[in-house]
Amino acid sequence: MHARILTRGHSGSEEVFARRLTEGDHVDGVVVTDAPERARYEAHIDGVLAGFAEYRRSGDVLAIPHTEVDPSFGGRGVGSELVRQVMDDLRGRGLLVRPLCPFVAAWIEKNPDYADLLDPAYAADDLG
C-alpha cells in the first residue's frame, strides 16, 4: 500500500489529508492539491503536473466544468484518481458538486457511493 496525500491551501496555511490506498487502486504517487488561486485541483506525479480539474465555487457547491490529463500520463488512471480525491475532499469539507464536465459526471455514475455529493439543484437526468 502507498499513501496518497491531498493538500488544501487556506490563506497561506495548508491542511494535509492522508489516506491509504486500497489494494484495488492502481495509481501510485498521485498527489492532489487544491490550488484556489488558480481555481482548480491539480494532480502531480513525482512533482510534475499530470492533470487538473477546474472549478467554480458558489456557496457550498463546487461546479467542475473541465478536467484534463497531460497525454504523457494518459491511460494510467490519473483522471479517475484526481476525481476520487476531489470528491473525498468535498465530502470532508461538507461541499456538494455540480459535475459539468462529462468525465466527472461519468465517474460519479460509475461510483454511486459518491452520488450523495451531487447538488440537489442539479437534476440526476443531467448526468447522462
Give a quick precis of the structure.
This protein is an alpha/beta fold.
Q: Give the strand tally.
A: 7
- So, the CATH homologous superfamily? Gcn5-related N-acetyltransferase (GNAT)
Q: How many individual helices?
A: 2
Beta-strand percentage range: 35-45%
Any idea how many domains? 1
* Rounded average pLDDT: 81
Largest beta-sheet characterization: 7 strands, mixed
Apparent shape: globular
CATH class: Alpha Beta
Strand order of the largest sheet: 2-1-3-4-5-6-7
Q: Give the structural class.
A: alpha/beta
> What is the N-to-C succession of helices and strands?
EEEEEEHEH
- In terms of per-residue confidence, which ranges show pLDDT below 50 for 5 or more consecutive residues? 1-26
CATH-derived architecture: 3-Layer(aba) Sandwich
The CATH topology turns out to be Aminopeptidase
InterPro entries: Acyl_CoA_acyltransferase (IPR016181), Gcn5-rel_NAT (IPR045057), GNAT_dom (IPR000182), GNAT_YJDJ (IPR031165)
Keywords: Transferase
Pfam families: Acetyltransf_CG
GO molecular function: acyltransferase activity, transferring groups other than amino-acyl groups
